[in-house]
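Aim 2 progress. For Phospholipase_D-nuclease N-terminal, the working sequence is reproduced below.
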Amino acid sequence: MGRYLPILIAVMLAIYAITDMAQTDSVKVNFMPKWMWFALIVLVPFAGAIAWLVWGRRNAGGGGRGGDPRDSAPDNDPEFLRRL
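Predicted structure tokens for this construct:
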């Protein structure tokens, strides 16, 4: 079982990265088009998936700073507060 563990981890990591890449909007993808990221993830198992997770996405978990203004709380939106 131990000798199959790295293969299992590589497959699971690739599945996660491909799923995350497929759900990411094309405008939020860095450096390459999505099809090239897909090829990198599939052809270079560990490095491709890790590269996608580190560099492939824009605004990945920015903590609410600098992202989409619709992602903030309603009490931070002056337009919403004016309508109250």
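The mean pLDDT is 80. This observation will guide construct design in the next reporting period.
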